[in-house]
Amino acid sequence: MNTCQNLDSLQRRRAAAIVLVAVMVPVLLGFAVLTIDVGVLYNARADMQNAADAGALSAANILGSTIGGNEVTLARAEALAIIQRHSTLGRELSVAPSDIVFGRIYHDELANTFSFTPTETGPDAVRIAVRSSTGSVNGPVPLFFASIFGKSTADVEARATAALTGLRDIAVAVDLSGSMKWDSELKYYEDRNINLRDVWCSLNGPLPNRPYIPGDEGDTQYATDTGPTIGVMNTWGNSLNSGSYNPLTDPGLWYIPASANCTEPDITASLTARGYNATRRSQIMAGPSSTWANRAAVMIGLAAWTPSSGGDTSVSSSELTWITYPSYRKTWTWADYLDWSTGNNNGVTDEDDDFEYQFGVKMFTGFLLDQEDYFGDTNLTMTPLQPMQGAKDGVQEFVNQSRSFDQMSLEIFASTAHHEIDLSSDRQGVADRLYNMQPNYYDSRTNIGGGLQSAINELTGPRARPKAQKIIVLLSDGASTMGPDPETVAQTAADEDIIVYTISVGASADRTVMQNIAAITGGQEFYAQGTPGEYAALLQSIFRGIAGLGNATLIE
After folding, report:
1. Using CA atoms, how far apart are residues 540 and 548, in angstroms rounded to an integer?
2. CB half-sphere exposure, 317, CA atoms < 13 A
3. Contact, 452 vs 472, CB < 8 A?
């Protein structure tokens, strides 16, 4: 009995097991085949993530190494090429143009997080999505066994963001010697295309655009500007950049000799309009040489003559009422201008004596620019002096393209070096201060070594961050004429692990010195050459490129 019962129980258990196995085998097989498809999806996503990471890093590094050219176009092409070298499930990967997004990143120092803002203007980051999905360039990922359950494909996506994230402390060192206005000075009109007319027009506003775009006299923002009136002088006359300019035939100049009568019909007409009768006009235009300066002042409207008695013909100083000085004048006098026009200490007449005793807005503006240490005499910070204006706009572009975690300082130099703006995250303050400066701001010669040392002092001082990369951007348009040897100071920078990028501008630049400084420190020399219009554009491109230099890091 017991034996029969045991056999019966065993048979029942075997039957139950058979049923259980019959039920579980399909389930187990289902899990097995799903595991295979899950593995396919996992491997596909890993392949796609590798492609996204590599593409983003390569594109961001292009942004950090391109000087000139269309960096976005180059970076996009690089990202696509790198991604197409990757494959998954035997299929080459690719991306749509819309899946490569350029932007700028911003660092929240407290939270130590980054935010991404899409833009193709000065990008420092790239975000890439590699998609294998319905409607994408790669199509969905095919599944092997999931079709048993009615699903033959799956959508997979991988994303990566790479950015130029290294901390940088940057000292911008700019040459403010006298030669930084040479491309505007009247005395050089025979050697280059000067923008003296734009300087004159800007004396009463508006300020130069940022950036100011140099060009021929009829092409710039001042093309239709009439400029200020100086006394009664308000006619520009012939173009200085025509290639055939002659001071003796320029209707914008009046010749008032000291040893002969003035015969300019425009002066006769002007004196008549101001109420001087024929007798007074003769006394003013044909008087003795001893009163030339006073008479010239009346002729060009710097002073009004009120004779003390009906028969007085002396045009004496006590009988003159001078006009007020313009707001940009600081220390010079109308007597200084009249004396300069005779050719005394006059750099313009040293170059071309046909300008002697000539008066007009050209000569007056030439006088303002020809003064030694002239910021002490005249404030011309609001005028587009070249190549100074190109340097200002280049630094502004540098600030625009800098990263949110960059610190920046401003050092300037001429005969002496001056630390102007402390190293900080207020990078716009650097550009703003430079816009309010001008060549010869403190003095006039060129001390490149002093400028470098000032930058080194700031980058090794208490405001510098220990873990930040140290960079100097040095701009100069001339050879070093005084101060410490620039190459010796460059070695000091190299010893402090400071990289110096040098920017040479203008035909007078000593590129050998600038190249050597860069080479000693592991940097690079850039040359902005050509006309003001050409080098202004190059300066912005160079500064934009330097702002983007760096190594990319994945941040997402």
Report:
1. 12
2. 4
3. yes
Half-sphere exposure of 301 toward its Cβ, with a 13 Å CA cutoff?
21
Instruction: Indicate the CATH number for domain 168-180+383-554.
Output: 3.40.50.410
List the beta bridge partners of residue 184.
none
Could you state, in order of their start, the residue ranges of all structural domains in the chain? 28-163, 168-180+383-554, 188-207+216-376
Instruction: Give residue 312's region: left, alpha or beta (phi > 0; psi -120 to 50).
Output: beta
Please compute, for residue 540, the number of CA atoms within 13 A of its CA located in the half-sphere on the CB side: 16
Alpha-carbon distances, residue 200 vs 184, 217, 234, 359, 379 (angstroms): 10, 12, 10, 14, 13
Tokens of 3: 């034996």
Tell me how far apart the alpha carbons of residues 188 and 352 are, in angstroms, rounded to a whole number. 10
Structural tokens at position 555: 């941040």
The three-class DSSP label of residue 303 is strand
**CA 140 and chain centroid, separation:** 46
Question: What's the confidence (pLDDT) of residue 467?
Answer: 85
pLDDT digits (tens, 9 = 90+) for 374-426: 678 899 999 999 999 999 999 999 999 898 889 999 999 999 999 999 999 99
- Residues 16, 537: Cα–Cα separation, whole Å: 87
CA dist 228 to 232, 255, 322, 393, Å? 10, 21, 17, 25
- Record the pTM: 0.79
For 140, which DSSP code?
P
Helix (H), strand (E) at residue 409: strand 406-413
Which residue bears the tokens 């630049």?
509
